C-alpha cells in the first residue's frame, strides 16, 4: 500500500483535479487502494490567513469568504454529477458557517491567537479533502474521508506542533484497520492536541502528514505529487541548467530542502527515514516523468555532489577579541543566549585561534542578536576583551550537498576553484565533520553567478557555458560569429561547450542579450540597436551582469580596448585577443597583463597575435614549460609580405599584389602596417618577450622593404599611388632575385636576446624557400631541437584561420 499526497496546485483547479483523478485511477488499478493525503486548494491557506487578519483588524472579510465558497462550489458544480452534489454542498456549507462564526468571534475580540489561527486554517484541508473524496467516489467507488485532527496528536505548539508519535501511530493503525482496503482521504497539515484543539504541523505540513501516516502503516512508498519534476540540482530560477535528481538519501534531501529547495517539507524525512520508506516526488502536471526518489539505499548515484542549495538573504555577525581565546564556555553562553531568545543560527564558524566567531542569522534577527550580545557581554565589552559585534548584510549562503563527498579529496577544491576564478569572495566557510555539506557565505550580488559557476564545475557532463563579450565586427569578428554559429551544435554535442555571445560592439553600435545573441542575425540586431558604442559602458554592462565564465574578446585593431584590459582582468574576466597592440607596446604593460590575469585566476589568450591560427604561442609556451630553452627563432611572420613575395613574379606589378593581399584579408586594416614591417616587428617582439626577453620596440632592428616615399604616404590611397610610382624600384629587386634563381624572403631572427628583421634572397637550399599563399614559417632551435629545429608552417593570415584561432582560444578558457 502507498500513501499519496497531493499538494495545493494539484487540487488547485478543475483541470488539475481531473488529472489527480486519472493518477488515482491508475494507482488503484496497479497497486490497489492508497491512502490519499490532501493539501488545501492552491492559495486557500493564504486566503484563510488573510481573512483571519482582516477579522482581527475589524475589517470586512466577507468578499474573501465568498471567494472561498465559490472556488469550492465551482468544483462541485463542474466535477460532480448532479445527484451527488447536494450532500457535498451541505457539508461544505456547514464548514463555511462554522468558519464565519469563528471569524466573527475574532472580530468581536479583535484578537487572533495562534490557537484560533490554526483553527481557521484547518478549514482549507477539510474542504479540499472532503471534496476530492466525493469526486473520487464518483469514479472509483466508496471512499472514506478522515479528518486528521482525530488521527494525529500533538503538543500545543500552535503553528508548528510536535507530534506524539506513539499515540498517533495507534490512532492511525486503528483507523486503517477499521477501513482496511478502502480508498481513504485524509486532511493534510492539521492535527489536534490532548484537549482536542486543532493544531497544525507547519507550512508544508501536508507532506509531513503523509510521512506520519505512511510510517504508522509501514507503507511501501510515500508519493508526494507536486508541481515540479522532483528535487533539482539547484534553484532553477537562478540556474538554467539545473535538472531533477533521480535519487537522494534522506540526509541529502533534508540538507537540500532545508536550504531553499522548497520541494518537500524537511520534517517529512524523519518518519520515512526511521522506517526506511522511500519518498517519491512526482509532478502531477507531467505524470509520466519518474521524479526523484529519496531512499535509504541509493543505488545509481555515483555523483559526489547531489545538489547546490542556497539561502538568498542572510546576515552575519562577527564577534572577536582576545577575551574569547581559551575561554571555555564562551560560545556556550553566546549560543544559549540566542537560543533563549528564539534566534535561529543558520551557520557558525570559529577560527582555531579562537579569536573570532562568525555566525549567520536571518536578516530580521541580526539587530536583536547584536543587542542581546551587547547586554550579555557588557563587562567583557567594557574591559575591551571583546569588540562590539559587527553585522554584515546583503549576504547569501551557497551550500554543496552530497553524502558521497565523505572521504573524497578534491571536492572542496573544485568549489573554491570555481568561486575563485570567477572572482567571488568567500566571507565564511562551514563544513561539518560528517562531510555532507560545505557551506560558504558570499555576497548576495554574486549568488547567481556563483551558483552557475559551481553547477558547471560539478556537473561536467553538462554543457559548460562561456559568456562572451566581443569587440570588433570586421573581417575577423564577423568570421568568428559565422564559425561559432556553424559549429554551435557540434561544440555542444561533442565537447559540451556552449558559447553564448552576450555583448557585441563595433565602433558604431553595441548590443546585449543576457540569454545569448542569435549569431545568425547578429548584424541586423546590431544595426537596429539603439545603443551607440561606448567602450566604458560596454565594460560596465559586462561587469554588472556578473556572469560566470565570462570572456572579453578583442577583435579590433584599436588601441582603445587595450587600456581597458586591466579593468577586465580585475573583474575576473578572461581576455582573448587577436589585437597585437596590447602585447607589443611597453614591456611594463605586457607584464601587467600577465600579473593581473594570474592574480585574478583568469586566462589571457592571444594565439593569433603571431601567425594567426598557427600554434606558435602555444608551442613556445609548451617548450618552455617542459624545461626546454630557446636558442634561436627564425621566422617569416608577415602573411601579407609572404603572399606578396610568393606572387610577385613575371609581369605582375608590386602594387597589384599588395591590393590582392588586402582583398584576401591578409593585411592589417591599414596595409601600411604590414609593409612598413610594423606588424612583423610586433610579432617578433611578442615572441621574444614570451621567450623571456625584456625588450622594447626600439630594440628591434628592421630593414625597410619600401622606399621612403611609400613609408611617408599619409593615406592608404596615397600609399598605393606611391607603390605605383615606385614600380621600377620593385621591378629591379624582383629581376635581381629571378636572375640569381632566388626568392625574396622577409625574415625575422631572435638570437642572444637580439631581434632583427631583414630582407633576404634565398635559394632552394634554404628551408624558407618553399612557401606559398600567405604562409608563415617559424623554426625554433632549442636545447632539445638543436640538430634539426622544430618547424611550424602554414597559412599565417586570413580571416578564416585567424577567427579559428580566436575560436580555439575562447573554448580553452577555463579548460
Ligand atoms: N587579418 C588577419 O589575418 C589577422 C588579423 N589579426 C588582427 O585582427 C584584428 C582585426 O582585424 P580586422 O578584422 O581585419 O579589422 P577590421 O578593420 O576589419 O575590423 C575592426 C573592427 O573593430 C571595430 N572597432 C574598432 N575600434 C573599436 C572600439 N574602440 N570598440 C569597438 N569596436 C571597435 C571596428 O568597428 C571593426 O568592426 C587586428 O588587430 C589584426 O591585427 C590578427 C591575426 C591575423
Ligand atoms: N596582417 C597580418 C595578419 C596576421 O597577423 C599578416 O599579414 O601577417
Ligand atoms: Na598563432
Automatic annotation (TrEMBL):
A biological process term (GO) from this entry: lysine biosynthetic process via diaminopimelate
Reaction it catalyzes: L-homoserine + NADP(+) = L-aspartate 4-semialdehyde + NADPH + H(+); L-aspartate + ATP = 4-phospho-L-aspartate + ADP; L-homoserine + NAD(+) = L-aspartate 4-semialdehyde + NADH + H(+)
Cofactor(s) required, per the database record: a metal cation
CDD domains: AAK_AK-HSDH-like (cd04243), ACT_AKi-HSDH-ThrA-like_1 (cd04921), ACT_AKi-HSDH-ThrA_2 (cd04922)
Keyword RNA-binding found: no
Alphabetized UniProt keyword annotations: Amino-acid biosynthesis, ATP-binding, Kinase, Lysine biosynthesis, Metal-binding, Methionine biosynthesis, Multifunctional enzyme, NAD, NADP, Nucleotide-binding, Oxidoreductase, Sodium, Threonine biosynthesis, Transferase
GO molecular function: aspartate kinase activity; ATP binding; homoserine dehydrogenase activity; metal ion binding; NADP binding
Tagged with keyword Kinase: yes
Entry-linked InterPro entries: AceGlu_kinase-like_sf, ACT-like_dom_sf, ACT_Aspartokinase, ACT_dom, AK-HD, Asp/Glu/Uridylate_kinase, Asp/hSer_DH_NAD-bd, Asp_kinase
Pathway: Amino-acid biosynthesis; L-lysine biosynthesis via DAP pathway; (S)-tetrahydrodipicolinate from L-aspartate: step 1/4; Amino-acid biosynthesis; L-threonine biosynthesis; L-threonine from L-aspartate: step 3/5; Amino-acid biosynthesis; L-methionine biosynthesis via de novo pathway; L-homoserine from L-aspartate: step 3/3; Amino-acid biosynthesis; L-threonine biosynthesis; L-threonine from L-aspartate: step 1/5
EC number: 1.1.1.3, 2.7.2.4
Domain named ACT: residues: 400-467
Family as reported in the entry's similarity comment: In the N-terminal section; belongs to the aspartokinase family. In the C-terminal section; belongs to the homoserine dehydrogenase family.
Function: Bifunctional aspartate kinase and homoserine dehydrogenase that catalyzes the first and the third steps toward the synthesis of lysine, methionine and threonine from aspartate.
The protein's assembly and partners: Homotetramer.
The protein, known as: Aspartokinase
Lineage of origin: Bacteria, Pseudomonadati, Bacteroidota, Sphingobacteriia, Sphingobacteriales
